[in-house]
Amino acid sequence: MTHTMRAIRLSKAGGPEVMEVVAVEVPTPGPGHVLIRHEAVGLNFIDIYQRTGLYPLSYPSGLGREGAGIVEAIGEGVTRFSVGDRAAYGTGDVGAYAEAHVVDAGRAVRVPAAIPLTTAAAVMLKGMTAEFLARRVFHVKQGDAVLVHAAAGGVGLILCQWLQTLGVTVIGTVGDEHKADLARAHGCDHVILYRREDIVDRVKAITHGDGCAVVYDSVGKDTLDASLASLRRRGMLVSFGNASGPVPPVEPLRLSRGGSLFLTRPTLFDYVATTEELDDSAGALFALIQSGAIKVEIGQTFPLDRVREAHEALAGRQTTGSTLLIP
């Protein structure tokens, strides 16, 4: 067995070119940790935010927080896993862009035999994000109308399907016809092509002037105004990403004028802060995948050494569904 592996390393923040493929020692898990040999690694917008320095890292650094594979070694005191278990994680320490990664055992979950490891890698971070957005940030009620921006993206496709199981009217925004078809096939009742339709006008027409109970916005700067204007009285804007850039400050009075609105900026990490919360979130997700209520769309895969190309595709809005790196 070789004792080195390929891994992505960064010595500074910047464009895709700062990611280098290097050979490093295979790490040994310390107390409470496990070494997972990856079958697949998930690509997420948080990786881009960390690579560019929007979310700072300390260098030299690895990148990536999500992967799935087989437990190859366990550290002292680990009882949650045995060697040979199928495991996945979505909130590990950075460094998932590698052939193997050491993760805190309390941050990884077992993957049911019925779920392929590639699916698990595609769905942990995005799927648990959809879980806490649909089930816990805002309690949607049957008959509510909701708006999901980037409905054909990695989180969007899963979130729309999850919301559909709760009996709500799902309105999604997308950039083109291909993405519109994908969104419709994954639980979107109404699709708005934001490049050529006015989002607020369409939302008002669909909801007979009422607006939405909640808007899920991962786009950020470009959609803030439309998101706030699409809400009904006492509605909630859930701002959970900055694909178009960080959201500018919002005056509290603006929320009052919009109809006593709520604004939250949640992160998955705060909603799976304990191992119990993590198990509950992943368990709910795996159950919906196994029941067939959620179909996981792996839009594209890239070998590890083409990671720069993968980042360019994700940042350039050229991807649909989940994107995987295959070590």
TrEMBL record:
GO cellular component, one term: cytosol
Domain Enoyl reductase (ER): from-to ranges: 14-325
Sections of the chain in a coiled coil: none
SUPFAM superfamilies: GroES-like (SSF50129), NAD(P)-binding Rossmann-fold domains (SSF51735)
Organism: Brevundimonas subvibrioides (strain ATCC 15264 / DSM 4735 / LMG 14903 / NBRC 16000 / CB 81)
InterPro entries: ADH-like_C, ADH-like_N, ER, GroES-like_sf, NAD(P)-bd_dom_sf, QOR-like
GO molecular function: mRNA 3'-UTR AU-rich region binding; NADPH binding; quinone reductase (NADPH) activity
Name this protein carries in UniProt: Alcohol dehydrogenase zinc-binding domain protein
Keywords associated with the record: NADP, Oxidoreductase
CDD domains documented for this protein: QOR2 (cd05286)
